[in-house]
């Protein structure tokens, strides 16, 4: 397991590119509506009566016989038929195509330059969005200015980086942040017997 302290002001990062520059041109109304619709997909859950979340009894889980859903099976066959046609495509051409059709493909690059985001990946953007949308951090910890976090399956560290950025930019009162993280790894030897599984970050 690895751990660390949030780099609350330690060291200097390069200034974000584009600060002080003119604002980018506005998007047209159709794009704005589509983005707002995508970002408003939020599901809520209510506590059960009695106030405690409980897992179902182990004996009641997965006890019904499996079912095949014809429509889903048809979609699966259709998807696999299309995927099988991609095997002989030139990888560079295919990569250019998927990049040009990914509507969110420029988000992380934009965040890197405008927000000066460190280790900015899709995971970074997802977690930062979650932090900004929902009140996940304990109010008591924030009031006391001390936060501890545990990160599982964390490599390469984008969630830690996103939380650090969020704390520094949105919650500067949380001055003391410590974290621990792990991620599954394996060290492969010449034979399976020599392979060591471990938790490291």
Automatic annotation (TrEMBL):
* Alphabetical UniProt keywords: mRNA capping, mRNA processing
Read off the InterPro entries from this record: mRNA_Cap_2O-Ribose_MeTrfase
A GO CC term? nucleus
The record's region (Disordered) falls at 1-29
| Gene Ontology process terms (BP) | 7-methylguanosine mRNA capping
Question: Does the keyword Membrane feature in the UniProt annotation?
Answer: no
Recorded GO MF terms: methyltransferase cap1 activity
PANTHER family in the record? CAP-SPECIFIC MRNA (NUCLEOSIDE-2'-O-)-METHYLTRANSFERASE 1-RELATED (PTHR16121), CAP-SPECIFIC MRNA (NUCLEOSIDE-2'-O-)-METHYLTRANSFERASE 2 (PTHR16121:SF2)
Q: Could you identify this protein by its name?
A: Cap-specific mRNA (nucleoside-2'-O-)-methyltransferase 2
Q: Which organism is it from?
A: Alosa alosa (allis shad)
């Amino acid at each position: 397991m690895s751990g660390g302290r949030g780099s609350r002001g330690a060291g200097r990062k390069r200034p974000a590119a584009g600060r002080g520059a003119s604002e980018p041109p506005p998007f047209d109304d159709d794009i704005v509506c589509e983005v707002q619709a995508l970002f408003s997909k939020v599901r809520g859950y209510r506590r059960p009566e009695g106030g405690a979340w409980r897992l179902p009894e182990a004996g009641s889980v997965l006890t019904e016989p499996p079912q095949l859903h014809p429509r889903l099976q048809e979609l699966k066959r259709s998807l696999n038929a299309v995927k099988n046609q991609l095997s002989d495509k030139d990888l560079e051409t295919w990569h250019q195509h998927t990049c040009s059709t990914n509507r969110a493909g420029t988000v992380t690059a934009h965040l890197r330059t405008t927000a000066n985001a460190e280790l900015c990946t899709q995971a970074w953007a997802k977690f930062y969005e979650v932090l900004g949308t929902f009140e996940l951090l304990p109010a008591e910890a924030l009031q006391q200015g001390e936060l501890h976090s545990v990160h599982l399956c964390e490599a390469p560290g984008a969630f830690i980086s996103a939380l650090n950025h969020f704390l520094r930019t949105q919650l500067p009162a949380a001055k003391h942040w410590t974290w621990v993280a792990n991620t599954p790894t394996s060290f492969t030897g010449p034979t399976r017997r020599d392979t060591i599984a471990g938790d490291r970050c």
